[in-house]
Design brief:
With about 550 residues, this protein is α/β, with parallel strands linked by helices. It has 17 helices and 18 strands. Among the domains are: about 70 residues; about 110 residues, Ribosomal protein S6/Translation elongation factor EF1B (Alpha-Beta Plaits, 2-Layer Sandwich). The chain has a 6-stranded mixed sheet with strand order 8-4-1-2-3-14, with helices on both faces. A 5-stranded mixed sheet has the order 11-10-9-12-13, with helices on both faces. It has a 4-stranded antiparallel sheet with strand order 15-16-18-17. Helix 5 crosses helix 11, helix 13 packs antiparallel against helix 14 and helix 14 packs across helix 16. The longest helix has about 40 residues.
Protein backbone atom coordinates (compact mmCIF):
# COMPACT_ATOMS: atom_id res chain seq x y z
CA UNK A 1 0.00 0.00 0.00
CA UNK A 2 1.23 3.48 -0.80
CA UNK A 3 2.60 5.37 2.17
CA UNK A 4 1.05 8.62 3.27
CA UNK A 5 2.70 12.01 3.64
CA UNK A 6 1.52 14.78 5.93
CA UNK A 7 1.81 18.37 4.75
CA UNK A 8 2.17 20.63 7.79
CA UNK A 9 1.50 24.33 7.14
CA UNK A 10 2.40 26.46 10.18
CA UNK A 11 0.90 29.91 9.75
CA UNK A 12 0.92 33.03 11.89
CA UNK A 13 -2.53 32.38 13.38
CA UNK A 14 -3.21 28.68 12.82
CA UNK A 15 -1.79 25.30 11.84
CA UNK A 16 -3.09 23.14 9.01
CA UNK A 17 -2.22 19.46 8.46
CA UNK A 18 -3.28 17.35 5.47
CA UNK A 19 -2.51 13.65 5.06
CA UNK A 20 -2.62 12.29 1.52
CA UNK A 21 -2.05 8.86 0.01
CA UNK A 22 -1.26 8.90 -3.69
CA UNK A 23 -1.86 5.89 -5.90
CA UNK A 24 -1.31 5.68 -9.60
CA UNK A 25 -4.76 6.98 -10.47
CA UNK A 26 -6.04 9.01 -7.53
CA UNK A 27 -5.24 11.10 -4.48
CA UNK A 28 -6.85 9.91 -1.26
CA UNK A 29 -7.47 12.29 1.63
CA UNK A 30 -6.85 10.53 4.96
CA UNK A 31 -6.74 13.40 7.43
CA UNK A 32 -7.41 17.12 7.69
CA UNK A 33 -6.36 18.98 10.80
CA UNK A 34 -6.92 22.65 11.60
CA UNK A 35 -6.06 24.31 14.92
CA UNK A 36 -5.78 27.98 15.90
CA UNK A 37 -2.67 29.23 17.68
CA UNK A 38 -4.14 30.57 20.90
CA UNK A 39 -1.76 33.49 21.25
CA UNK A 40 -2.33 37.05 20.14
CA UNK A 41 0.18 37.87 17.37
CA UNK A 42 2.96 40.31 18.33
CA UNK A 43 1.63 40.71 21.89
CA UNK A 44 2.11 37.27 23.48
CA UNK A 45 5.57 36.76 24.98
CA UNK A 46 7.89 34.34 23.22
CA UNK A 47 7.58 31.49 25.75
CA UNK A 48 3.76 31.50 25.79
CA UNK A 49 3.68 31.82 22.01
CA UNK A 50 5.92 28.77 21.71
CA UNK A 51 3.69 26.71 24.02
CA UNK A 52 0.60 27.74 22.06
CA UNK A 53 2.32 26.80 18.80
CA UNK A 54 3.26 23.32 20.07
CA UNK A 55 -0.31 22.78 21.27
CA UNK A 56 -1.75 23.80 17.90
CA UNK A 57 0.59 21.54 15.92
CA UNK A 58 -0.24 18.54 18.10
CA UNK A 59 -3.97 19.29 17.77
CA UNK A 60 -3.76 19.49 13.98
CA UNK A 61 -1.84 16.24 13.48
CA UNK A 62 -3.47 12.78 13.40
CA UNK A 63 -4.04 11.32 16.84
CA UNK A 64 -2.61 7.86 16.13
CA UNK A 65 0.10 6.20 14.08
CA UNK A 66 2.10 9.39 13.64
CA UNK A 67 5.48 7.72 14.14
CA UNK A 68 5.07 5.92 10.82
CA UNK A 69 4.20 9.09 8.93
CA UNK A 70 6.45 11.45 6.98
CA UNK A 71 5.94 15.17 7.62
CA UNK A 72 6.81 17.90 5.13
CA UNK A 73 7.07 21.47 6.40
CA UNK A 74 7.77 24.78 4.68
CA UNK A 75 9.44 28.13 5.29
CA UNK A 76 7.84 31.44 4.44
CA UNK A 77 8.08 35.15 5.13
CA UNK A 78 10.05 38.17 4.01
CA UNK A 79 13.36 36.43 4.76
CA UNK A 80 12.65 33.66 2.22
CA UNK A 81 13.82 34.68 -1.26
CA UNK A 82 12.52 32.98 -4.41
CA UNK A 83 13.90 34.06 -7.76
CA UNK A 84 14.24 32.85 -11.34
CA UNK A 85 17.65 33.95 -12.59
CA UNK A 86 19.73 33.28 -15.69
CA UNK A 87 23.32 32.04 -15.61
CA UNK A 88 25.74 31.13 -18.42
CA UNK A 89 25.19 27.48 -19.24
CA UNK A 90 28.93 26.79 -19.47
CA UNK A 91 29.68 27.27 -15.76
CA UNK A 92 26.40 25.60 -14.78
CA UNK A 93 27.43 22.46 -16.67
CA UNK A 94 31.10 22.58 -15.66
CA UNK A 95 31.06 23.54 -12.00
CA UNK A 96 29.97 21.51 -8.99
CA UNK A 97 26.63 22.19 -7.32
CA UNK A 98 28.32 24.01 -4.43
CA UNK A 99 30.23 26.24 -6.86
CA UNK A 100 27.01 27.10 -8.72
CA UNK A 101 25.47 28.06 -5.37
CA UNK A 102 28.32 30.53 -4.87
CA UNK A 103 27.59 32.01 -8.30
CA UNK A 104 23.92 32.37 -7.35
CA UNK A 105 24.82 34.14 -4.10
CA UNK A 106 27.07 36.55 -6.02
CA UNK A 107 24.24 37.21 -8.50
CA UNK A 108 21.54 38.07 -5.94
CA UNK A 109 23.65 39.16 -2.95
CA UNK A 110 22.19 42.67 -3.02
CA UNK A 111 18.68 41.22 -2.55
CA UNK A 112 19.51 39.08 0.49
CA UNK A 113 18.24 40.89 3.62
CA UNK A 114 20.43 38.96 6.06
CA UNK A 115 24.16 38.10 6.33
CA UNK A 116 25.32 36.14 3.29
CA UNK A 117 27.23 33.69 5.47
CA UNK A 118 23.89 32.74 7.07
CA UNK A 119 22.29 31.95 3.69
CA UNK A 120 21.24 28.43 2.70
CA UNK A 121 20.72 28.02 -1.06
CA UNK A 122 18.86 25.42 -3.09
CA UNK A 123 18.17 25.53 -6.82
CA UNK A 124 17.19 23.59 -9.89
CA UNK A 125 17.48 24.37 -13.59
CA UNK A 126 14.34 25.14 -15.58
CA UNK A 127 16.21 24.62 -18.89
CA UNK A 128 18.34 21.61 -19.80
CA UNK A 129 21.83 23.08 -20.36
CA UNK A 130 22.81 20.11 -22.54
CA UNK A 131 20.04 20.70 -25.09
CA UNK A 132 19.11 24.38 -24.97
CA UNK A 133 20.41 26.56 -27.79
CA UNK A 134 20.48 29.63 -25.56
CA UNK A 135 23.77 30.72 -24.00
CA UNK A 136 22.09 31.06 -20.61
CA UNK A 137 19.87 28.73 -18.62
CA UNK A 138 17.04 29.75 -16.29
CA UNK A 139 17.48 28.63 -12.71
CA UNK A 140 14.82 28.54 -10.01
CA UNK A 141 16.44 29.63 -6.75
CA UNK A 142 15.39 29.64 -3.10
CA UNK A 143 17.48 31.32 -0.39
CA UNK A 144 16.58 31.05 3.30
CA UNK A 145 18.38 31.86 6.55
CA UNK A 146 20.04 28.84 8.14
CA UNK A 147 18.61 30.00 11.48
CA UNK A 148 15.06 29.50 10.14
CA UNK A 149 15.93 25.94 9.09
CA UNK A 150 17.32 25.24 12.54
CA UNK A 151 14.18 26.60 14.22
CA UNK A 152 11.93 24.50 12.02
CA UNK A 153 13.89 21.32 12.72
CA UNK A 154 14.05 22.03 16.47
CA UNK A 155 10.27 22.47 16.56
CA UNK A 156 9.69 19.11 14.85
CA UNK A 157 12.15 17.38 17.18
CA UNK A 158 10.40 18.84 20.20
CA UNK A 159 7.09 17.39 19.05
CA UNK A 160 8.77 14.10 18.18
CA UNK A 161 7.87 13.77 14.51
CA UNK A 162 10.01 12.81 11.54
CA UNK A 163 10.62 15.30 8.75
CA UNK A 164 10.89 14.16 5.16
CA UNK A 165 11.76 17.57 3.74
CA UNK A 166 11.62 21.34 4.21
CA UNK A 167 10.12 23.21 1.27
CA UNK A 168 9.18 26.86 0.70
CA UNK A 169 5.55 28.04 0.66
CA UNK A 170 5.30 29.50 -2.90
CA UNK A 171 6.19 26.16 -4.46
CA UNK A 172 3.79 24.30 -2.18
CA UNK A 173 1.04 26.68 -3.33
CA UNK A 174 1.94 25.97 -6.95
CA UNK A 175 1.72 22.19 -6.50
CA UNK A 176 -1.47 22.45 -4.46
CA UNK A 177 -3.32 24.46 -7.12
CA UNK A 178 -1.90 22.45 -10.04
CA UNK A 179 -2.83 19.11 -8.47
CA UNK A 180 -6.29 20.18 -7.40
CA UNK A 181 -7.18 22.05 -10.58
CA UNK A 182 -5.62 19.75 -13.21
CA UNK A 183 -7.94 20.56 -16.10
CA UNK A 184 -7.43 24.32 -16.34
CA UNK A 185 -7.54 25.51 -19.94
CA UNK A 186 -5.15 28.37 -19.23
CA UNK A 187 -1.45 28.83 -19.79
CA UNK A 188 -0.40 31.19 -16.99
CA UNK A 189 -1.96 31.01 -13.52
CA UNK A 190 -1.74 33.42 -10.61
CA UNK A 191 -2.08 32.47 -6.94
CA UNK A 192 -2.88 35.01 -4.23
CA UNK A 193 -2.60 33.65 -0.71
CA UNK A 194 -4.08 36.13 1.76
CA UNK A 195 -2.35 35.13 4.98
CA UNK A 196 -2.50 36.56 8.47
CA UNK A 197 0.97 38.13 8.52
CA UNK A 198 1.88 38.26 4.81
CA UNK A 199 0.37 37.91 1.36
CA UNK A 200 2.03 35.59 -1.15
CA UNK A 201 1.75 36.41 -4.86
CA UNK A 202 2.75 33.60 -7.23
CA UNK A 203 2.64 33.15 -11.01
CA UNK A 204 3.06 29.69 -12.52
CA UNK A 205 2.91 27.80 -15.76
CA UNK A 206 2.10 24.22 -14.87
CA UNK A 207 4.83 23.20 -12.43
CA UNK A 208 7.21 25.98 -13.54
CA UNK A 209 7.49 28.91 -11.14
CA UNK A 210 7.61 32.14 -13.15
CA UNK A 211 7.34 34.77 -10.41
CA UNK A 212 6.83 35.08 -6.66
CA UNK A 213 6.70 37.95 -4.20
CA UNK A 214 6.01 38.10 -0.47
CA UNK A 215 4.02 41.21 0.55
CA UNK A 216 4.52 42.02 4.28
CA UNK A 217 0.84 42.88 4.75
CA UNK A 218 -1.91 40.50 5.82
CA UNK A 219 -5.15 39.94 7.65
CA UNK A 220 -3.70 40.83 11.05
CA UNK A 221 -3.33 44.44 9.86
CA UNK A 222 -7.08 44.62 9.20
CA UNK A 223 -7.90 43.04 12.55
CA UNK A 224 -5.76 45.62 14.37
CA UNK A 225 -7.57 48.49 12.66
CA UNK A 226 -10.99 46.99 13.51
CA UNK A 227 -9.82 46.64 17.14
CA UNK A 228 -8.93 50.29 17.33
CA UNK A 229 -12.01 51.62 15.53
CA UNK A 230 -14.66 49.44 17.20
CA UNK A 231 -12.84 49.11 20.53
CA UNK A 232 -12.94 45.28 20.48
CA UNK A 233 -10.51 42.68 21.75
CA UNK A 234 -8.47 40.76 19.17
CA UNK A 235 -10.67 37.65 19.02
CA UNK A 236 -13.92 39.62 18.57
CA UNK A 237 -12.32 41.86 15.97
CA UNK A 238 -11.18 38.76 14.04
CA UNK A 239 -14.67 37.23 14.10
CA UNK A 240 -16.26 40.54 13.10
CA UNK A 241 -13.91 40.78 10.12
CA UNK A 242 -14.99 37.39 8.80
CA UNK A 243 -18.72 37.41 9.61
CA UNK A 244 -19.65 41.04 9.07
CA UNK A 245 -17.04 42.10 6.57
CA UNK A 246 -14.82 45.16 6.62
CA UNK A 247 -16.34 48.42 7.86
CA UNK A 248 -15.87 51.38 5.47
CA UNK A 249 -13.19 52.89 7.70
CA UNK A 250 -11.05 49.74 7.27
CA UNK A 251 -11.46 49.43 3.50
CA UNK A 252 -8.46 51.73 2.74
CA UNK A 253 -6.18 49.30 4.63
CA UNK A 254 -7.37 46.41 2.48
CA UNK A 255 -6.88 48.59 -0.59
CA UNK A 256 -3.20 48.84 0.42
CA UNK A 257 -2.94 45.06 0.22
CA UNK A 258 -4.89 44.91 -3.06
CA UNK A 259 -2.66 47.60 -4.58
CA UNK A 260 0.49 45.66 -3.68
CA UNK A 261 -0.99 42.53 -5.27
CA UNK A 262 -1.93 44.46 -8.42
CA UNK A 263 1.52 46.03 -8.67
CA UNK A 264 3.19 42.62 -8.30
CA UNK A 265 1.09 41.00 -11.01
CA UNK A 266 1.45 44.01 -13.32
CA UNK A 267 5.23 43.96 -12.87
CA UNK A 268 5.34 40.33 -13.96
CA UNK A 269 3.17 40.92 -17.02
CA UNK A 270 5.24 43.92 -18.12
CA UNK A 271 8.61 42.28 -17.55
CA UNK A 272 7.79 38.89 -19.05
CA UNK A 273 5.33 40.11 -21.71
CA UNK A 274 2.90 37.42 -20.61
CA UNK A 275 -0.75 37.65 -19.72
CA UNK A 276 -2.06 36.04 -16.53
CA UNK A 277 -5.17 34.13 -17.61
CA UNK A 278 -6.66 33.33 -14.19
CA UNK A 279 -5.74 33.91 -10.53
CA UNK A 280 -6.85 31.84 -7.54
CA UNK A 281 -7.40 33.45 -4.15
CA UNK A 282 -6.70 31.26 -1.12
CA UNK A 283 -5.55 31.54 2.49
CA UNK A 284 -7.48 32.65 5.56
CA UNK A 285 -8.14 36.10 4.10
CA UNK A 286 -10.18 34.57 1.30
CA UNK A 287 -12.96 33.99 3.87
CA UNK A 288 -13.61 37.74 4.10
CA UNK A 289 -17.04 38.75 2.88
CA UNK A 290 -16.98 40.18 -0.64
CA UNK A 291 -13.23 39.65 -0.88
CA UNK A 292 -13.40 39.01 -4.63
CA UNK A 293 -15.35 42.21 -5.17
CA UNK A 294 -12.71 44.24 -3.31
CA UNK A 295 -9.89 42.63 -5.31
CA UNK A 296 -11.61 42.93 -8.69
CA UNK A 297 -11.85 46.68 -8.24
CA UNK A 298 -8.05 46.82 -8.24
CA UNK A 299 -6.98 43.77 -10.28
CA UNK A 300 -8.00 43.39 -13.92
CA UNK A 301 -7.53 39.61 -14.00
CA UNK A 302 -10.22 36.89 -13.73
CA UNK A 303 -10.30 35.79 -10.06
CA UNK A 304 -11.62 32.65 -8.41
CA UNK A 305 -11.69 31.45 -4.80
CA UNK A 306 -9.78 28.16 -4.53
CA UNK A 307 -12.79 26.46 -2.96
CA UNK A 308 -13.49 23.64 -2.80
CA UNK A 309 -9.79 22.84 -3.32
CA UNK A 310 -10.48 19.10 -2.94
CA UNK A 311 -12.38 18.51 -6.17
CA UNK A 312 -9.69 16.12 -7.48
CA UNK A 313 -9.25 14.25 -4.18
CA UNK A 314 -11.08 11.19 -2.89
CA UNK A 315 -12.22 11.86 0.67
CA UNK A 316 -11.87 8.87 3.01
CA UNK A 317 -12.07 10.80 6.29
CA UNK A 318 -14.67 9.36 8.62
CA UNK A 319 -16.90 11.47 10.88
CA UNK A 320 -15.73 14.77 9.42
CA UNK A 321 -17.98 17.68 10.52
CA UNK A 322 -20.43 18.80 7.87
CA UNK A 323 -19.20 21.86 6.02
CA UNK A 324 -15.69 21.82 7.55
CA UNK A 325 -13.87 21.32 4.24
CA UNK A 326 -15.89 24.07 2.57
CA UNK A 327 -15.15 26.41 5.47
CA UNK A 328 -11.40 25.89 5.71
CA UNK A 329 -10.80 24.62 2.17
CA UNK A 330 -9.10 27.75 0.78
CA UNK A 331 -6.68 27.66 3.73
CA UNK A 332 -5.49 24.13 2.90
CA UNK A 333 -3.81 24.73 -0.46
CA UNK A 334 -0.29 25.03 0.99
CA UNK A 335 -0.69 21.96 3.21
CA UNK A 336 -2.01 19.94 0.26
CA UNK A 337 0.93 21.03 -1.89
CA UNK A 338 3.35 19.96 0.86
CA UNK A 339 1.66 16.56 1.15
CA UNK A 340 1.89 15.90 -2.59
CA UNK A 341 4.67 13.46 -3.41
CA UNK A 342 7.21 14.35 -6.06
CA UNK A 343 6.25 13.07 -9.48
CA UNK A 344 8.76 11.49 -11.85
CA UNK A 345 11.37 14.03 -12.95
CA UNK A 346 9.72 16.74 -10.82
CA UNK A 347 12.22 19.06 -9.20
CA UNK A 348 11.56 20.69 -5.86
CA UNK A 349 13.42 22.30 -3.01
CA UNK A 350 14.52 20.55 0.16
CA UNK A 351 16.38 22.44 2.88
CA UNK A 352 16.57 19.44 5.22
CA UNK A 353 20.30 18.69 5.75
CA UNK A 354 21.65 15.84 3.62
CA UNK A 355 22.52 13.67 6.61
CA UNK A 356 18.88 13.72 7.77
CA UNK A 357 17.34 12.63 4.49
CA UNK A 358 16.43 8.95 4.39
CA UNK A 359 16.93 8.05 0.78
CA UNK A 360 17.39 4.46 -0.37
CA UNK A 361 20.63 3.49 -2.11
CA UNK A 362 19.92 1.89 -5.46
CA UNK A 363 21.20 -1.61 -6.15
CA UNK A 364 23.12 -0.32 -9.13
CA UNK A 365 25.29 1.91 -6.96
CA UNK A 366 25.86 -0.95 -4.57
CA UNK A 367 27.23 -3.54 -6.95
CA UNK A 368 29.31 -1.50 -9.40
CA UNK A 369 32.93 -2.29 -8.69
CA UNK A 370 32.08 -4.84 -6.01
CA UNK A 371 34.02 -7.60 -7.76
CA UNK A 372 33.59 -11.36 -8.02
CA UNK A 373 33.30 -11.77 -4.25
CA UNK A 374 30.04 -9.81 -4.29
CA UNK A 375 28.79 -11.94 -7.19
CA UNK A 376 29.54 -15.06 -5.19
CA UNK A 377 27.72 -13.72 -2.14
CA UNK A 378 24.68 -12.84 -4.24
CA UNK A 379 24.68 -16.32 -5.75
CA UNK A 380 24.83 -17.84 -2.25
CA UNK A 381 21.96 -15.58 -1.16
CA UNK A 382 19.78 -16.75 -4.03
CA UNK A 383 20.62 -20.42 -3.37
CA UNK A 384 19.75 -20.14 0.33
CA UNK A 385 16.55 -18.24 -0.41
CA UNK A 386 15.48 -20.79 -3.00
CA UNK A 387 16.28 -23.66 -0.59
CA UNK A 388 14.27 -22.05 2.23
CA UNK A 389 11.18 -21.37 0.08
CA UNK A 390 11.16 -24.41 -2.18
CA UNK A 391 13.31 -26.77 -0.11
CA UNK A 392 13.79 -29.90 -2.23
CA UNK A 393 11.28 -28.77 -4.86
CA UNK A 394 13.26 -25.74 -6.08
CA UNK A 395 12.44 -25.29 -9.73
CA UNK A 396 15.00 -25.03 -12.49
CA UNK A 397 13.35 -21.78 -13.56
CA UNK A 398 14.12 -20.19 -10.19
CA UNK A 399 17.74 -21.32 -10.41
CA UNK A 400 18.05 -19.94 -13.94
CA UNK A 401 16.69 -16.61 -12.72
CA UNK A 402 19.24 -16.57 -9.91
CA UNK A 403 22.08 -17.38 -12.31
CA UNK A 404 20.82 -14.72 -14.69
CA UNK A 405 20.98 -12.12 -11.92
CA UNK A 406 24.49 -13.21 -11.00
CA UNK A 407 25.55 -13.03 -14.65
CA UNK A 408 24.17 -9.48 -14.76
CA UNK A 409 26.30 -8.53 -11.75
CA UNK A 410 29.38 -10.16 -13.30
CA UNK A 411 28.89 -8.20 -16.53
CA UNK A 412 28.53 -4.94 -14.61
CA UNK A 413 31.63 -5.84 -12.57
CA UNK A 414 33.60 -6.41 -15.78
CA UNK A 415 32.42 -3.04 -17.06
CA UNK A 416 33.53 -1.51 -13.78
CA UNK A 417 36.98 -3.11 -14.14
CA UNK A 418 37.29 -1.66 -17.65
CA UNK A 419 36.27 1.76 -16.37
CA UNK A 420 38.85 1.48 -13.58
CA UNK A 421 41.56 0.65 -16.11
CA UNK A 422 40.65 3.67 -18.22
CA UNK A 423 40.63 5.88 -15.12
CA UNK A 424 44.10 4.56 -14.16
CA UNK A 425 45.37 5.35 -17.64
CA UNK A 426 43.91 8.86 -17.46
CA UNK A 427 45.48 9.33 -14.02
CA UNK A 428 48.87 8.53 -15.54
CA UNK A 429 48.34 11.15 -18.24
CA UNK A 430 47.42 13.73 -15.61
CA UNK A 431 50.57 12.92 -13.60
CA UNK A 432 52.69 13.51 -16.69
CA UNK A 433 50.89 16.80 -17.29
CA UNK A 434 51.83 17.90 -13.77
CA UNK A 435 55.45 16.73 -14.02
CA UNK A 436 56.26 18.27 -17.42
CA UNK A 437 57.21 21.91 -16.99
CA UNK A 438 55.19 24.03 -17.03
CA UNK A 439 52.49 21.73 -15.55
CA UNK A 440 49.65 21.89 -18.09
CA UNK A 441 46.96 20.60 -15.72
CA UNK A 442 47.85 23.24 -13.14
CA UNK A 443 47.77 25.93 -15.82
CA UNK A 444 44.24 24.89 -16.85
CA UNK A 445 43.14 24.83 -13.23
CA UNK A 446 44.48 28.36 -12.65
CA UNK A 447 42.73 29.47 -15.85
CA UNK A 448 39.33 28.28 -14.58
CA UNK A 449 39.80 29.66 -11.07
CA UNK A 450 40.58 33.10 -12.52
CA UNK A 451 37.23 33.37 -14.33
CA UNK A 452 34.68 35.88 -12.96
CA UNK A 453 31.04 34.77 -12.94
CA UNK A 454 30.26 36.99 -15.95
CA UNK A 455 32.86 35.26 -18.15
CA UNK A 456 32.94 31.80 -19.65
CA UNK A 457 35.21 30.00 -22.10
CA UNK A 458 34.47 28.66 -25.56
CA UNK A 459 37.91 27.48 -26.70
CA UNK A 460 41.35 26.99 -25.09
CA UNK A 461 44.40 26.27 -27.28
CA UNK A 462 47.87 25.49 -25.86
CA UNK A 463 50.58 25.41 -28.52
CA UNK A 464 54.34 24.93 -28.53
CA UNK A 465 56.92 22.12 -28.34
CA UNK A 466 57.90 20.18 -25.23
CA UNK A 467 61.67 19.44 -25.38
CA UNK A 468 62.69 15.80 -25.43
CA UNK A 469 64.67 16.29 -22.20
CA UNK A 470 61.52 17.44 -20.38
CA UNK A 471 59.61 14.37 -21.56
CA UNK A 472 62.45 12.05 -20.45
CA UNK A 473 62.58 13.76 -17.04
CA UNK A 474 58.83 13.31 -16.67
CA UNK A 475 59.09 9.61 -17.54
CA UNK A 476 61.90 8.87 -15.08
CA UNK A 477 60.11 10.80 -12.33
CA UNK A 478 56.92 8.83 -12.95
CA UNK A 479 58.80 5.53 -12.82
CA UNK A 480 60.60 6.57 -9.63
CA UNK A 481 64.07 6.11 -11.12
CA UNK A 482 67.00 7.70 -9.39
CA UNK A 483 68.63 9.03 -12.52
CA UNK A 484 68.48 12.78 -12.66
CA UNK A 485 69.17 13.87 -16.19
CA UNK A 486 69.55 17.58 -16.46
CA UNK A 487 66.65 18.90 -18.48
CA UNK A 488 67.00 21.65 -21.03
CA UNK A 489 65.30 25.01 -20.73
CA UNK A 490 61.56 24.90 -20.01
CA UNK A 491 59.37 24.86 -23.11
CA UNK A 492 58.02 28.09 -24.51
CA UNK A 493 54.23 27.52 -24.72
CA UNK A 494 51.52 29.83 -25.97
CA UNK A 495 47.93 30.07 -24.75
CA UNK A 496 44.98 31.25 -26.89
CA UNK A 497 41.64 31.67 -25.07
CA UNK A 498 38.34 32.46 -26.79
CA UNK A 499 35.26 33.24 -24.74
CA UNK A 500 32.17 35.31 -24.08
CA UNK A 501 31.23 37.77 -21.36
CA UNK A 502 28.04 39.48 -20.29
CA UNK A 503 30.06 42.40 -18.90
CA UNK A 504 33.10 43.92 -20.59
CA UNK A 505 34.59 44.64 -17.17
CA UNK A 506 34.61 40.88 -16.55
CA UNK A 507 37.21 40.39 -19.33
CA UNK A 508 39.49 42.97 -17.74
CA UNK A 509 39.08 41.29 -14.35
CA UNK A 510 39.91 37.95 -15.97
CA UNK A 511 43.18 39.27 -17.38
CA UNK A 512 44.13 40.87 -14.04
CA UNK A 513 43.45 37.56 -12.27
CA UNK A 514 45.57 35.63 -14.78
CA UNK A 515 48.59 37.93 -14.28
CA UNK A 516 48.57 37.13 -10.56
CA UNK A 517 49.58 33.53 -11.30
CA UNK A 518 53.29 32.85 -11.94
CA UNK A 519 52.57 30.69 -15.01
CA UNK A 520 50.97 33.45 -17.11
CA UNK A 521 52.87 36.26 -18.78
CA UNK A 522 52.23 38.88 -21.48
CA UNK A 523 48.46 38.48 -21.47
CA UNK A 524 47.08 40.59 -24.33
CA UNK A 525 43.53 41.17 -25.48
CA UNK A 526 43.79 40.47 -29.24
CA UNK A 527 40.15 40.78 -30.16
CA UNK A 528 36.82 41.97 -28.79
CA UNK A 529 33.45 42.60 -30.42
CA UNK A 530 29.82 42.92 -29.44
CA UNK A 531 27.87 39.67 -29.53
CA UNK A 532 24.29 38.68 -28.79
CA UNK A 533 24.13 36.33 -25.80
CA UNK A 534 20.55 35.09 -25.69
CA UNK A 535 18.45 38.21 -25.35
CA UNK A 536 21.30 40.28 -23.88
CA UNK A 537 24.18 42.19 -25.42
CA UNK A 538 27.57 40.74 -24.55
CA UNK A 539 31.19 40.64 -25.70
CA UNK A 540 33.09 37.99 -27.66
CA UNK A 541 36.79 38.19 -26.87
CA UNK A 542 40.19 36.58 -27.52
CA UNK A 543 43.21 36.62 -25.22
CA UNK A 544 46.81 35.48 -25.92
CA UNK A 545 49.31 34.65 -23.17
CA UNK A 546 52.72 33.09 -22.73
CA UNK A 547 52.92 30.13 -20.35
CA UNK A 548 56.05 30.20 -18.22
CA UNK A 549 57.77 27.85 -15.84
CA UNK A 550 58.64 30.13 -12.89
CA UNK A 551 62.14 29.58 -11.62
CA UNK A 552 62.41 28.97 -7.87
CA UNK A 553 63.98 31.76 -5.84
CA UNK A 554 67.71 31.04 -5.26
CA UNK A 555 68.64 29.94 -1.75
CA UNK A 556 70.91 32.48 -0.05
CA UNK A 557 73.75 31.04 1.96
CA UNK A 558 74.70 32.69 5.25
CA UNK A 559 78.11 33.72 3.89
CA UNK A 560 76.42 35.67 1.05
CA UNK A 561 74.84 38.07 3.49
CA UNK A 562 76.88 41.12 4.25
Amino acid sequence: MAKSVIGLDIGANNVKAVELVETGKEIILKHVGYAPIEAIPDLTNEEDRHKALLKAIQAALPKSGLKTKKVVTALNGKLVINRVISLPKGPVMRLSREEVKKMIIAEIEAEIPFPVEDAAVDFYTLDDPTTTKEEKVRISVAVVPKTEIDKNMALMREIGIEQESIDVVPFALMRGITALKPRLNVETTGIIELGAATTEVVVTKGLDMLFTRNVPLGGNLLTRVIQDILNLDYEKAENSKIKEGLPPTVTPQFERIATEIRNSLSYFQLQEHKKIDLAFVCGGGSKLRQVLQFLKEKIDIPLEIANPPLENVKNEIKNIPVGLLEEIGPSLVTAIGLAMKAKKNEKRFNFLPENMRKEGISFKIYYVGAGLATAALILLFYLLLAFKIKQKETSIADMKKALSNVQYVVERTQESAQTLAEATKFEGILKEMYIITPPIAQVLEELVVSMPSSVWLREVIISGDIPEEAAITAKTAKEGKGAKKKAGPPPNLNLDVVGLATKSAGVADFMVNLKQWPHFSSCVLTGAKLAAIGTEQGVAWTIKCNILNPAPAPDKKPEDKK
